[in-house]
């Protein structure tokens, strides 16, 4: 794995070319714990390869956030002196925001309202350090205009795999090719690098073109095309077809595809149970090659009783060994 993080200097850094300054990058995770921890683990990976690089992590403060990750962040800060956390002021959402609004849309509103604070933070850091890049979580796409305004290379960090990234990159094309919602098409969609997908089986926020969530992800996909690159929490051998399709530009036929860098899998060694992890690896080592189905749905992977039964039934009928890793640190295996 190689990522060139010594990109061209931005004008806010070039303004002080008479004085040699330390180099820095800015990481901007979304508030969800799974995304925050993944971004910090990425910061640790960068530090392991560029120990002299200053790494700043900008965190959106939420009324309910911080309790789960406080000790984890404290341990990371103590072990990496060049890693600095910047907490943005807590954002109060407008009173018109309804409690039933989809969580991703609420997150987008918080991120959009935080843009002035992000802008000010970047300006403050740039007074003493050269900012090489801003790497933002893909849910923070509303902050891409800030990087464009300051002429700082803006990268997206995609915490999921290459397969779902291929779907998101293809979304604008799929949207333009039909006037119907995906839930009403009753047909198979063809996404380069993936097997045919039944239109109604797409993630729920995507299936209704008249839903605000659909527009949200459509805007996100458009922003992907404007970025300096996309960093994905996967590795090429795990998803070779999807990775090649994205890299070859097949998912975005109407535009030039941004460079894609695979840097996963990222494992939070201080946030997971060492005993469970050791048990997992020991069990995997004892299984035949390519015989295990792996399931991991992230920190927001919540399912109804009916959905869990369907998943269990599918696993049972497959007759395959499986490993199911949950964010609440439970390990379920089938011998």
TrEMBL record:
GO molecular function: UDP-glucosyltransferase activity
Sorted UniProt keywords: Glycosyltransferase, Transferase
Domain of life where this protein originates: Eukaryota
InterPro entries: UDP-glycosyltransf_plant
Family: Belongs to the UDP-glycosyltransferase family.
Name of this chain's protein: Anthocyanidin 3-O-glucosyltransferase
Naturally occurring in which organism (per UniProt): Hevea brasiliensis
């Amino acid at each position: 794995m190689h990522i060139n993080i010594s990109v061209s200097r931005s004008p806010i850094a070039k303004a002080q070319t008479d004085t040699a300054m330390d180099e820095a990058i800015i990481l901007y995770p979304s508030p969800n714990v799974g995304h925050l921890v993944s971004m910090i683990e990425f910061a640790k990976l960068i530090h392991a390869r560029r120990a002299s690089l200053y790494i700043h992590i900008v965190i959106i403060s939420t009324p309910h956030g911080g309790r789960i990750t406080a000790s984890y962040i404290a341990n990371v800060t103590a072990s990496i002196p060049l890693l600095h956390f910047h907490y943005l002021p807590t954002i109060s959402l407008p009173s018109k925001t309804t409690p039933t609004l989809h969580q991703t849309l609420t997150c987008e509103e918080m991120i959009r309202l935080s843009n002035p604070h992000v802008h000010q933070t970047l300006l403050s850091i740039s007074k003493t350090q050269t900012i090489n890049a801003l790497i933002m979580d893909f849910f923070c796409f509303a902050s891409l205009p800030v990087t464009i305004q300051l002429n700082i290379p803006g990268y997206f960090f995609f915490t999921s795999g290459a397969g779902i990234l291929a779907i998101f990159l293809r979304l604008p094309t799929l949207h333009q090719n039909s006037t119907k919602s995906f839930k009403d098409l009753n047909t198979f969609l063809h996404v380069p690098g993936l097997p045919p997908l039944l239109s109604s089986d797409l993630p729920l926020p995507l299936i209704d073109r008249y839903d605000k969530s659909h527009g949200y992800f459509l805007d996100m996909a458009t922003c992907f095309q404007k970025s300096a690159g996309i960093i994905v929490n996967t590795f090429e051998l795990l998803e070779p077809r999807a990775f090649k399709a994205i890299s070859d530009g097949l998912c975005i036929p109407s535009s030039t595809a941004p460079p894609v860098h695979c840097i996963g899998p990222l494992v939070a060694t201080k946030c997971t149970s060492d005993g469970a992890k050791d048990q997992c690896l020991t069990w995997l080592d004892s299984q035949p090659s390519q015989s295990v189905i792996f399931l991991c749905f992230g920190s927001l992977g919540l399912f109804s009783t009916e959905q869990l039964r369907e998943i269990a039934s599918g696993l049972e009928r497959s007759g395959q060994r499986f490993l199911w890793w949950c964010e609440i640190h439970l390990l379920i295996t089938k011998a």
